Amino acid sequence: MARPAIPPEEVKVLDINAAYHGVRTITLMERAGEAVARFVLENYPPGSRVAVLCGKGNNGGDGFVAARHLLRGMRPDVFLLEPEEEVSTDLARANLHLVRGVSRPAGYMDARQYDVFIDAMLGVGLKGRPKEPYAGMIRAMNRVKKPKVSVDVPSGWPSDLALRPDVTVTFHAPKVGMSKKNSGRIVVADIGIPPEAEGYCGPGDFSLLPSRRKDAHKGDSGRLLVIGGGPYSGAPAFTGMAAMRSGIDLVFVATPEPAATPVSIYSPNLIVRPLPGNVLGPAHVDPLLKMSADFDAVAIGPGLGDARETVAAVQRFVSRCRKPMVIDADAIGACGARPGVLKGRTAVLTPHAGEFRQLTGRSPPADDLDRRAEMVREAAARLRTTLVLKGPVDVVSDGAYVKLNRTGNEAMTVGGTGDVLTGVVSGLVAQRATPFAAARMGAFTTGLAGDLAFEEKSFGLLATDVIDKIPIVLRRYLLGTSG
């Protein structure tokens, strides 16, 4: 059965997650290049002269591999669009070395001498229109009336300046937006990406987190408002502390007066804004909405309790808040009582099974993961939001796609770990990750931090132990993948 199309940004996710599951990127490159060569060998006359146009990234590396395999029955020449020293990855350089005898700068190419052209210039990582020398070569190739085969995606796609191939050999699955009009005939090649790399959260998800600016100032890397507490003080504190460990700059905690001092004692890194009264109520909504305008995201729910006035306040706030939200704990039940408050909102909800029932009226089966996943996807689609159903295997869905997460352990039933997840997810949303990406990264990070804590604390681990391990996960997997 054909795989559904995947968003282009997921390609890097798959590559990194495949390596995490034991399939090295160099193996994927070898299989990709071989698949392109096989298509050309099987569909064009033996002995054809083939020009392989290569960029400096891994798409070019696929082209180098293709050229090497084409030596079996064709006459390939590799043309580099940029100087050889600009080839940007070790993998691409290694494969360039193997075809060095047939490589030359693109300026030496005479298109009239070639029968087939392979486009391995630019892959899915392109942002905006291609620049020179790629722009000029794309224009020139579009004037050539000979067969052109693109590698994975046409160079320049999806901008308005893109090569128009006869065929695109794409890997693993079509990319969302590809069509016969912009990609020619689409041939899908299976290059052995393991199912776990696509179906489960992993370190590749960190590639979806926007890069931090080197000239950033305080607050530029994320400001989060946590609305929680009153009956409980630990939950909003854990959420704020976990958010700080996710890499954001500032966390403010708006909490009713009885919880304000305890929250500030938990960590001096949290900026506490006391709210008059013992619990959140309707009178707080307008001031909180005004306050939220200065933040990148809002986390609401941890430790609020389910007093009638609190439920009404949550419903009113959520229905009017224009910032991305992460909704957890008692705020989930409030939204379940009036699901219409979520209409048009950008949000991640992080229920456990009981809260999922409050939200949807349905209980997810504990022993049928496929049905559980489909139930979450259906609910996310109906509510038009992102859901993280917590459990032994977390289920994350935006209503279109589903990801599973199996990091974490049975000791994480201890109180507060759900608040840690809320903090990590909301911190990533505040750093401008999309809700679905933040939910995936957050589930993976929190679970793995819990696994690291379990190695030291066993069944005595606490929520604060999980928070302490978050930076270790980020150091291990975030550096080198973001952007």
Structure description:
The chain is an alpha/beta fold and 483 residues long. It has 17 helices and 16 strands. Helix 8 runs parallel beside helix 17, helix 10 (285-292) packs parallel to helix 11 and helix 16 (435-457) crosses helix 17. The model has no long low-confidence stretch (mean pLDDT 93).
The number of distinct helices, counting runs of at least 4 residues, comes to 17
Percent of residues in helical segments?
Answer: 40-55%
**Total beta-strand segments:** 16
Beta content comes to 15-25%
Low-confidence stretches: none
Estimate the mean pLDDT confidence.
Answer: 93
**What is the rounded Rg?**
26 Å
What are the SSEs and their pairings?
Blueprint (H helix, E strand, L loop, with lengths): L9 H11 L4 H19 L5 E6 L3 H13 L4 E6 L9 H9 L4 E3 L10 E5 L13 H10 L4 E4 L15 E5 L8 H4 L1 E5 L5 H5 L23 E5 L6 H12 L4 E7 H10 L4 E5 L9 H8 L4 E4 L7 H13 L4 E3 L2 H8 L9 E3 L3 H8 L8 H15 L2 E4 L4 E4 L4 E4 L11 H14 L4 H23 L5 H15 L6
Helix pairs in contact: 2-3, 3-4, 8-9, 8-15, 8-17, 10-11, 11-12, 12-13, 15-16, 16-17
Report a brief summary of the structure.
The strands form 2 sheets. A 9-stranded mixed sheet has the order 10-9-8-11-12-13-14-15-16, with helices on both faces.
Descriptive keywords:
elongated, 16 strands, alpha/beta, 7-stranded parallel sheet, 9-stranded mixed sheet, 15% strand, 483 residues
